[in-house]
Design goal:
CATH superfamily: Nucleoside Triphosphate Pyrophosphohydrolase
Structural class: mainly beta
Largest sheet: 8 strands, mixed
Distance between the termini: 27 Å
CATH architecture: Alpha-Beta Complex
CATH topology: Nucleoside Triphosphate Pyrophosphohydrolase
CATH class: Alpha Beta
Radius of gyration: 14 Å
Number of domains: 1
Length: about 150
């Protein structure tokens, strides 16, 4: 069954909020934006707002939709992810069991510690572009084998 999810990049003054996923979770040890699964008939926007609040304590608004990413592991489509960004938020950061939070300068994004596909689309998001992408990983999700991007 395909998992529908969201991913959100919260931005402020030349920085982006990243989450280093806790060991044992999907993507454990990797830096990523905030987000997670769409559940119970939620819209992607509602799921994004809920997930960011759960993972960071921040209340976000004025979401900008950038596009859709599809992730294949082996010959199976596993994830369809709606990607958002915002620079409108309130509240204080509080960490959750999901992982460690850190504001990173836009010139210091740790692409070598992120999913391999991020280097292909995250720079577009940071330039306020829209995109769609399909990313083909090996069965274990350790190596990006191929990808397609449409702007």
């Amino acid at each position: 069954m395909v998992i529908h999810a969201t991913l959100c990049y919260v931005l402020r003054n030349g920085e982006v909020l990243l989450l280093k996923k806790s060991a044992g979770l999907f993507g454990g040890g990797k830096w990523n934006g905030l987000g997670g699964k769409v559940i119970g008939g939620e819209t992607p926007e509602r799921a994004c707002i809920r997930e960011v609040a759960e993972e960071s304590g921040l209340r976000i608004s004025d979401l900008r939709y950038h596009g859709l990413l599809k992730f294949w592991f082996g010959d199976k489509l596993d994830w369809i992810v709606h990607v958002f960004s915002t620079n409108s938020f309130e509240g204080e950061l509080k960490e959750s069991p999901e992982g460690m939070l850190l504001w990173k300068g836009l010139d210091k994004i740790p692409y070598d510690e992120m999913w391999e596909d991020d280097q292909h689309w995250l720079p577009l998001l940071l330039r306020w572009k829209s995109f769609e992408g399909e990313f083909y990983y090996d069965v274990e999700g350790k190596k990006l084998l191929d990808y397609k991007m449409v702007l």
